[in-house]
Design goal:
Layout lengths: L6 E3 L6 E3 L1 E4 L12 H4 L7 H13 L4 E3 L8 H10 L8 E6 L16 H15 L4 E6 L8 H13 L3 E7 L3 H13 L7 E5 L11 H8 L2 E5 L23 H10 L15 H17 L3 H10 L7 E4 L3 H8 L9 H10 L8 H8 L14
Parallel strand pairs: 3-4, 3-10, 4-5, 5-6, 6-7, 7-8, 8-9
Antiparallel strand pairs: 1-2
Helix pairs in contact: 2-11, 3-4, 5-6, 6-7, 9-10, 9-12
């Protein structure tokens, strides 16, 4: 049974995308390039399984797919490319990224957001995707080695020549995003329209600055890891670490034990009470709404003002169908939104807490330079 989905404008552009975007990081596997341990995990999907998920996503109304050159060292883009040959290209909005090295032997010039590396990366991505343009091309991470003017002029040139339609950034902080917006204006270049950022009930720090810039500048937020690698579901128990072969949450928890940088609610050195309180609130609301915990967690993101589309990753058609049930036909009440926000409070270190204590009655929506759609 097809599920109707809702659509939003992609930031200040005139393009409309489904409010759930299919993230393709689970497509393909490899033991080469950056993060080989991650892309060789047993939950990665082969081409046939990936195509089944892509087919179902479009059947349910989705039209927005996000990938990157480093996802499975190019194999994710290849899988989408073979699938795309039997589809109407004009009906699909495809996003990819560049900036993180694919070849670990080329760490001088095969990395970053220089003109050389962006142009060098785009060609192979288009070849793997078997398309002659990208709807959205994103800088994967801030590059301290390249003048921002060089990066922005390169994106602008690629827009002007039709190789990409729009550009965005991912994994940047507030001052960096404001510099991106201001520099594009100063040079009279096409603007950045998206920020792809890790955002969930477990990861809210970008609300402090980066998302304030998004609201002021009309930049759409595309949350990645909205379920924190499976942590914001009802499958986990406080005293039981999940099997690393059966879930991403378990896999990442195991990697944490090996010294990898990933937060885990089973890390005994941290206070994780808020996490388990959040799960309890999610379960209560899910029961009241007759929805899954994952759907409620996704819906909390969908209803955030700055969000255009939430990037969901799936390892099965069943998981995709459940996640897509967050898109349309129901809402969380203001009270329920507050309950969830209060259960997973935003930390406000100095000076953020100091500023907000004086600014609580000084919020003027008309003072923003751009009003988002």
């Amino acid at each position: 049974m097809a599920t109707k989905v809702d659509y939003n404008f992609l930031g200040r552009s005139g393009v409309k995308v489904s409010n759930l975007c299919l993230g393709a990081m689970t497509f393909g596997s490899t033991d080469k390039g950056m993060f080989p341990a991650f892309y060789s995990n047993p939950r990665q999907l082969n081409e046939e399984a990936s195509h089944q998920i892509l087919d179902k996503f479009v059947e349910l109304g989705g039209n927005f797919i996000d990938t990157a050159d480093i996802y499975a060292n190019g194999n994710s883009e290849k899988i989408i490319g073979t699938w795309l040959q039997n589809k109407s290209r004009d009906d699909i909005v495809i996003a990819s990224k560049a900036g993180i090295p694919m070849d670990m032997t080329r760490l001088n010039n095969g990395v970053g957001l220089s003109r050389r590396h962006i142009v060098e990366s785009l060609g192979p991505s288009l070849d793997r995707l078997q398309t002659n343009y990208l709807d959205l091309y994103q800088g994967h991470v801030w590059d301290n080695g390249t003048p921002l003017e060089e990066t922005l002029r390169t994106f602008d040139d690629l827009v002007r020549c039709g190789k990409i339609r729009y550009y965005g950034f991912s994994n940047v902080c507030g001052w960096q995003l404001q510099k991106i917006a201001d520099t594009a204006k100063m040079l009279n270049l096409n603007p950045c329209i998206t920020l792809q950022q890790q955002y969930s009930l477990c990861e809210r720090d970008s609300e402090l600055e980066a998302f304030q810039v998004c609201q002021n500048e009309g930049i759409a937020v595309l949350p990645w890891s909205p379920l924190k690698g499976g942590l914001l579901t009802d499958k986990l128990k406080r005293d039981v670490r999940p099997d690393p072969k059966e879930s991403r949450a378990g896999y990442l928890a195991e990697k944490l034990a090996e010294g990898k940088n990933w937060w885990s609610p089973w890390d005994e050195e941290k206070d994780n009470d808020n996490y388990w309180k959040t799960i309890d609130v999610l379960k209560t609301i899910a029961k009241d709404k007759d929805k899954s915990v994952a759907q409620v967690a996704l819906r909390w993101l969908i209803q955030q003002e700055v969000v255009s589309s939430v990037i969901i990753g799936c390892t099965s058609v069943q998981q995709l169908e459940d996640n897509m049930g967050a898109s349309s036909g129901w809402e969380l009440s203001p009270e329920e939104m507050k309950q969830l926000s209060d259960a997973a409070p935003l930390r406000k270190p100095y000076p953020y807490g100091f500023i907000s204590s004086f600014a609580s009655n000084r919020t003027n929506p008309f003072a923003r330079s751009v009003k988002m759609s």
